[in-house]
Amino acid sequence: MSAGPGPAHEHVSDAGGKCAGCGVGARKEGSDICHTCFTDAQAREVASRGRAKGDGLVGALKKGITATNPVFILFLGLCPTLAVSTSIDNAVGMSAAVMSVLIGSNIIIASVRKWVPDIVRIPIFIVIIATFVTIIDLSMQAFVPPLSRALGIYVPLITVNCIILGRAEAYASKNSVKGSLYDAIGIGFGFLAAILLVSTIRQTLGTGMIEVFGARIAEVPGLVDYPMAIFILPMGAFLVISLLLATFRYLGVMKCE
Amino acid sequence: MSNLISIFIGLALINNFVVARFLGLCPFFGVSKKLENALMMGIAVTIVMVLASIVTWFLLYGILKPYDIEYMNNTLYILVIAALVQIVEMWIKRTNVPVYNAFGIYLPLITTNCAVLGITFINATEAYDLIESVVAASGGGVGFTLVLAMMSGIRERIELADVPRCFRGMPVAFLVAMILGLLFFGFKGMV
User: Fold this and answer.
1) What part of B 56-75 touches A (C-beta under 8 Å)?
2) Contact A235/B182, CB-based, under 8 Å?
3) Which chain B residue lies closest to A81 (C-alpha atoms)?
4) How far apart are CA B32 and CA B26, in angstroms?
5) Partner-chain contact B26 A162, CB within 8 Å
6) φ/ψ (deg, to 5) at B158
7) Which of A157, A165, A167, A230 to mutate to test the interface with B (most CBs of B within 10 A)?
């Protein structure tokens, strides 16, 4: 079947208060088409945007890191980004956990999407996500106990991380398993990029050195002896995110309001 | 008694849910544009937090621990919170329509609020007894409401201020959150 514009939409000029798209619905405020036509057009536009950038893994990765970056563009999953970005180790561990849960839940939700009734979909999604979180939490406790201790309650709290439920609701419940897998990987890497950026800045300024998994990579002369401890403290996270957002807007990566 | 007071102050002020533990950030940035909405959201979250603490305490020490299935806690807690939110919503709808109209839109959001799931895990890891759990939950809720109300008051003023173009909206909200964080950091060492 061709990806046509759905039902036959004929232009009706001078339709008075009627929609210019289908000629049946009432006009949407400030527009000449009805609500249904408007959402249809929006959905088509979003779909074509996805196609233009490539539907494959590379396209999903590009989109996840830039256009739909979960942290900086969508403002999802702020709790873990702010809370565990005190060191690069924690950031990598957290994004690995989030990505595993995201991939697992996206695959399962995409495969059962046809049998899930619409009314109870959110509870079902949450239970699927909670199951994967339990698996990851127990695995981390067993295989990397120090990391598990450092992340603390933020690992079980992945259950209520808006990124995962958001992707389940917005993408996996409507698309194929393969597409959902790519979407999960793209969004997962977007989260990794964001949290890595924040944690690198916080760790460098807050401790004066870059240390990854016990190996000291670089030291900032002067800062090592007198680190700016505020960046390791909770309010440093707010400061870094605020300045990063403003910088992105100043450089034109994102739009100003 | 002094133990309970220190738990309350510890969760309300020193380790504040929003600015020190980063729990419940979505409503903090989302619903904090008007003082009235912020207060409503804060009260609703506090009520659900207290109820969730009581129910999960009984589940943890009545079912999960005796049968040694504590690994189920995550799944069970989130289901309990979802059910609880639904019940509170229906109960308010039945008994008090004006209150329902005021609270209604916030209640479904609470299910995925990390503050509620967070307090159940904090209660479990700190091994609080029932009364301590309730005090901890109300302390966390009061701290959450306090910060949400402060933030909304500040944001109402920011609307009128001449903020640099690139800082408008979220960046300036994050800066305000940072200053609030500094403020609450001053309570360190109180207990």
Assistant:
1) 71-75
2) yes
3) B22
4) 10
5) yes
6) -65, -35
7) A157
pLDDT of A4 > 60? The answer is no
Number of domains in chain A: 2
Contact B121 A156 (CB under 8 A): yes
Q: Which of B118, B164, B170 sits opposite A245 (nearest CB)?
A: B170
Amino acid at A217: I
Is residue A2 pLDDT above 60, yes or no?
Answer: no
In this structure, what token pair is assigned to residue A214? 């016990």
pLDDT of residue A26: 61
Query: Could you tell me if A20 and A124 lie in one domain?
Result: no
Structure tokens at B16: 């504040």
Is the confidence at residue A185, as pLDDT, over 60? yes
pLDDT for position B38? 83
With CA atoms as reference, the chain B residue closest to A251 would be B166
- The whole-angstrom distance between B95's CA and the closest CA on chain A is 25
CB contact under 8 A, B112 and A165: yes
Expressed as residue numbers, the domain containing A235 is 54-251
- In tens, the pLDDT along A36-94 reads 555 555 555 554 444 444 567 888 888 888 777 888 887 777 888 888 888 899 999 99
Clarify whether residues A45 and A120 are in a common domain.
no
A28 and A142 co-located in one domain: no
Instruction: In whole angstroms, give the CA distance from residue A74 to residue A195.
Output: 14
**Burial class of residue B153 (count of CB atoms within 10 Å of its CB; 0-12, 13-18, 19+):** middle
Is the residue at A2 inside a domain?
Answer: no
pLDDT-derived band at A3 (thresholds 50, 70, 90) equals: very low
Q: Give the pLDDT confidence score for residue B140 in this predicted structure.
A: 94
